[in-house]
Amino acid sequence: MDNAEELVAEIGRRFLPRVKAKGNAYTVNAADLYYRDLNVLVRALSNNGAEKIEIRNVYGQRYIGTNLDKKIDIEIHGTPGNDLGAFMNGPTMVVYGNAQDCCGNTMNDGLIIIHGHTGDVTGYSMRGGKLFIQDDVGYRVGIHMKEYQDKRPCLIVGGTTGDFLGEYMAGGVMLVLGLNLRQGGKHSARFAGTGMHGGVIYVRGGVSHLGIGAKAADVDGDDMKQIQRLVVEFCYYYGFNPDKIMEEKFTKVIPVSHRPYGKLYAY
User: Fold this and answer.
1) Distances from the Cα of 151 to the Cαs of 29, 170, 186, 243, in angstroms?
2) Were 80 and a residue from 41, 84, 171, 183 both cysteine, which residue would form a disulfide, CB within 3.0 to 4.6 Å?
């Protein structure tokens, strides 16, 4: 296409039957729609003044919301594929269903709320914004999360996690609530915090196994204030009782050193 007007016209011809508009809000029927076409459509609507996009009948389409940098609300009904919200920089995305691997990959800003569970490597290299998951997550969640200046990512899990939680974590905040555990139960994930050299992981209840570079510590008053703020926000999205959640003991996992492998790889 030679110009933006021709591109918009072409998108209109191809996808108009799938889109219903009401003011600056749009509903998209994604049934049997190839993931690239869906993402072209979402980006076109975003670039042309959409304030809200509701996407229905989502069945595994990848990269939804990738690299969007506008303040827009995106509501997804179904199961989005890998890399939901990757490199996202501002939108609010709500998923009524589960999400697959790499949700929030290198997310820079914005908000993702999952009404279900997510797969492996959720929040990979996340560097800003907030990511809420109502239920469980897979393996290597929060790997290499980082923070810079005023950017401090937050990843909140309502259930439990797989092994290698917070692997090589360099910054940010993770909160694992374990709401599906028995009272006083420990999270069974192994190697939590392996290679961790920044940030903090809060765990409601106990941690069964830590990796090299991480240690468990008691929470203090400032920790509890931060935990409570995140718990209240979590409960606002999912309808839980924050007071009930806060009754349980919390543990924090922090790095032993800012250079856990310094002696192994450098003289």
Assistant:
1) 35, 12, 31, 29
2) 84
Chain-centroid distance of CA 120 in Å reads 11
Q: pLDDT for 43-63, tens place per residue?
A: 989 988 899 999 999 999 999
Q: Residue 82 is encoded by which pair of tokens?
A: 């890998």
The class (CATH top level) of 4-265 is mainly beta
Which of 210, 137, 124, 209 lies closest to 172, judged by CA? Answer: 124
pTM above 0.85, yes or no: yes
pLDDT at 3 over 70: no
Q: What is the Cα–Cα distance from 89 to 132, expressed in whole angstroms?
A: 16
**79-95: pLDDT as tens digits:** 999 999 999 999 999 99
* Pairing status of strand 73-79 against strand 52-59: parallel
